[in-house]
């Protein structure tokens, strides 16, 4: 896989959800600002809280710019599109952590509520892992609220070596990208 920023800006892959519907995974782009805002409006209060650690109903203009115009080097972002409805139903991203000794990135994931349990999150993160490995990352980290069992299940079922720690009500999950999958 070519993990150069130029190549990643045009990244796309086709997958299939557990219900048989087609899913397109592609790089986010600046034209997705309205789509991202509309998707946030469709999230339940619980899903918004789990993603942002507080309820968030709108993204500021600066957040929309930051989220839809990544450099695809330090910050990579992918969206999942239900091909039948032409609807963005999930987004994942990583941000490089410069303050850590290993080549590490912080990851985030949000999936529309009605698509929970259909494999969107696992498919998105699978592609993000492939990109991260190709870009030389050794570890992904995710800070997850302890009550966010859905996200924890997705991370634990990635078949990657992991370790976790608790800090208050947050679980810090460390996924190793430089070791073979756990089977």
TrEMBL record:
Keywords of the record: Acyltransferase, Transferase
Cited Gene3D superfamilies: 3.40.630.30
EC number of this enzyme: 2.3.1.-
Alphabetical list of Pfam families matching this protein: Acetyltransf_1
Domain of life assignment: Bacteria
Signal peptide stretch: none
Molecular function terms, GO-annotated: acyltransferase activity, transferring groups other than amino-acyl groups
Protein name: GNAT family N-acetyltransferase
Listed InterPro entries: Acyl_CoA_acyltransferase, GNAT_dom
The UniProt record lists the keyword Acyltransferase: yes
UniProt enzyme class: transferase
PROSITE patterns, per the entry: GNAT
Residue ranges of domain N-acetyltransferase in the record: 23-167
């Amino acid at each position: 896989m070519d993990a150069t920023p130029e190549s990643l800006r045009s990244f796309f892959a086709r997958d299939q959800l557990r219900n048989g519907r087609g899913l397109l995974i592609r790089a986010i782009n600046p034209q997705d600002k309205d789509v991202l805002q509309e998707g946030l409006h469709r999230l339940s209060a619980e899903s918004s809280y789990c993603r942002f650690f507080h309820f968030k109903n709108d993204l500021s203009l600066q957040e929309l710019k930051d989220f839809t115009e990544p450099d695809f080097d330090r910050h990579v972002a992918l969206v999942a599109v239900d091909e039948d409805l032409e609807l963005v139903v999930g987004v994942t991203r990583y941000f490089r952590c410069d303050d850590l000794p290993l080549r590490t990135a912080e990851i985030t994931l949000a999936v529309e509520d009605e698509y929970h349990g259909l494999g969107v999150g696992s498919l998105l993160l699978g592609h993000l892992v492939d990109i991260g490995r190709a870009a030389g990352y050794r570890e992904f980290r995710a800070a997850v609220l302890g009550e966010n069992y859905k996200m924890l299940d997705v991370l634990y079922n990635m078949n990657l070596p992991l370790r976790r720690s608790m800090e208050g009500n947050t679980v810090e999950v460390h996924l190793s990208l430089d070791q073979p999958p756990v089977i």
